[in-house]
Write a structure and sequence with these properties.
α3 crosses α10. This protein has two domains: 56 residues; 206 residues, Orthogonal Bundle (MetI-like fold). The chain has a two-stranded antiparallel sheet. The protein has 276 residues and is mostly helical. The chain is built from 13 helices and two strands.
């Protein structure tokens, strides 16, 4: 009996130790960035200094005397607009894949081709198209670019949620006089509302984190936050204190969004797979 308890105790301690190491490994970079953001300017380049008087100078410079708040607003605008477009187009597409098996199994995987395609393949035609339309250095150019990989992901994400809605609900609604679209809009969509919210958050995070398309298609006052963060790497060196502040501002929405989407993320990503 004592031996069993001892083995159980050793197992629990080992598991807790592994979890503690994993937790420290994950959280330490965030702690380090926070530490650098609070260092006086003359100590930022000395990572060996742990004892110092915290200073809010870097935060004041970034929040009050720079264009980072504008770039933050640009990222929010681009993310929300892209997600809205992805839901408007992706939800009906996912419904068609789920209910009518449109295109069969190959079509389900084909919708992810844009996501798996290297961005460098799409950037040249996108750049030329935006140039012809005089949309370079505007949020619309970045929204169009982000839509190329967020719409397929949102569509794939929602297929599994539509698959779980009983067909009898729509059939009963159509017996009561609803058209197919009315049954979709008034019956099915409210049922998959949690999936829509999870897909929206996941799409927003993808748009929020992108720097490649935003770097090439936007500039000046229309830059997004990731591009602005990269701008602190100058010919004079890296402005570590200010960059750390901007990074913290950028990761907070991602962490909050990930907290709400984590339970449905695996289900959504795997839901579009072909079922045999």
């Amino acid at each position: 009996m004592m031996g069993h308890r001892l083995r159980r105790w050793i197992t629990e301690v080992g598991v807790l130790g592994i979890l503690l190491v994993a937790l420290v490994t994950v959280l330490f970079p965030y702690f380090w960035i926070l530490l650098v953001s609070l260092k006086p300017v003359d100590l930022v380049s000395r990572p060996d200094v742990w004892l110092f008087s915290p200073s809010a100078l870097n935060w004041e410079e970034v929040l009050l005397r720079s264009d980072v708040p504008r770039y933050l607003a640009n990222s929010v605008l681009v993310g929300l607009a892209t997600v809205a477009l992805a839901l408007v187009t992706g939800a009906p597409a996912a419904y068609a894949f789920s209910r009518f098996n449109t295109g069969g199994g190959p079509a389900r995987f084909a919708i992810l081709a844009a996501e798996m395609m290297p961005p460098a393949v799409l950037i040249v035609p996108l750049f030329l198209l935006m140039y012809r339309l005089a949309l370079l250095d505007t949020p619309l150019a970045v929204i169009a670019a982000h839509s190329t990989f967020i719409i397929p992901v949102v569509t794939w994400f929602l297929i599994g949620f539509f698959d779980e809605v009983p067909r009898e609900l729509e059939e009963q609604a159509m017996v009561d006089g609803y058209t197919r679209f009315q049954a979709f809009y008034k019956v099915v969509l409210p049922t998959v509302r949690p999936g829509l919210a999870a897909a929206a958050i996941f799409g927003f995070v993808l748009s929020w984190n992108d720097m490649f398309y935003a770097l090439i298609l936007s500039g000046g006052k229309n830059k997004t936050l990731p591009v602005a963060i990269a701008g602190y790497w100058t010919f004079r060196g890296i402005e570590m204190g200010k960059m750390s502040v901007a990074i913290l501002i950028a990761i907070v929405p991602v962490l909050v969004a990930s907290f709400f989407v984590q339970r449905r993320l695996v289900k959504g990503l795997g839901g579009g797979a072909v079922k045999f």
